[in-house]
Amino acid sequence: MTTPTPHSPDQPTARLFYEDDADPSHLSGTTVAIIGYGSQGHAHALNLKDSGIDVVVGLRPDSAGWQQAADAGLRVASVAEAAASARLISLLVPDTSQAAVFRDSIAPHLEPGDTLLFAHGFNVRYELLELPTDIDVVMVAPKSPGHRVRELYQQGAGAPALIAVEQDATGCAHATALAYAHGIGATRAGVLETTFAEETETDLFGEQAVLCGGVTGLVRSAFEVLVSAGYQPEVAYFECLHELKLIVDLMYRGGLGEMWHSVSDTAEHGGYEGGARLVDDETRRKMTEMLTDIRDGSYARRWIAEDDRGRPDFERRRAAEQQHPIEQVGARLRQRIAFLDGARPARPVTADV
Ligand code: NAD
Ligand code: MG
Question: Among 149, 201, 327, 343, fewest CB within 10 Å belongs to which?
Fold first, then answer.
């Protein structure tokens, strides 16, 4: 475990790449295999195809994605066939399936100079794959759910992405990754250089501390406190969940400052006071513990062991979450109230954040 050098927030350190920095010819004449046709897989496959790159989708023959990919005009093959026919293999199956898929269906077909590409560094960072040393290993990780990667591309824009090189056997690994980022539309927005370790550790920490763990914990607990105190669940739902989007949209557009500027002075005062009261040194100590678990691999070991057991704890938590009163109240309310943006997803959208 290496300790990163602290960066000063005042000094820009990030290297960014745009359209002109990429040379798409690094992928011309190359077949790209997209393994998996889920959230990221379908977006990468379709965007690359529309960018004029030869794409083959690799799937299990019984996979629901097979017909979808074929209907979208893509060539589909078994994972092994796709891997064998391609010089660049993009591994877009779930993180917990990557080790088995790689070992059984990809590794036997790798040739020196091939490129293995990831959209998240988990399996490489925690050394779950036996990577041959004569291939390039790179990452192009869109900072966006897959459906948005596709949508933005079709609008002529792109989703930003992170790029990293773990192994550079050919001397062209970075250029290849950048050409791929160009093909999926990411260089239209901006591509930020990172490492597999930085991407994996910050991604896991962000989703645990803030995006998926911290935020849902706050929303759920605040809802419970209001309802137990006798307030209407529908009102509690609006306050603690619905309005979160309005606040986050402001932060997304202009940082914390834009949000503080838009809310009332009372909300700003209460926000400073409440935030400091709730998130204190004890919370920061727990955040540091989370980060330690992530960096020393104990979090990854817990998740992999849970997955190996058939995910009993995960499924129990998922069921409990679905049965929480905030979900029941929300479902009823969303049927009865027209939301401003008309957004009522027909089914949950997967979003790795
Ligand atoms: P997903 O669950 O949406 O899709 C997985 C696909 O893989 C499906 O088509 C499934 O049929 C297929 N698959 C599953 N097991 C397989 C097997 N054993 N053999 C062959 N195919 C199999 O996955 P996803 O969310 O797109 O994640 C793919 C990668 O992208 C992961 O590394 C993830 O961390 C990363 N990522 C995802 C997002 C996101 O928005 N979902 C964002 C950034 C990065
Ligand atoms: Mg993420």
Answer: 343
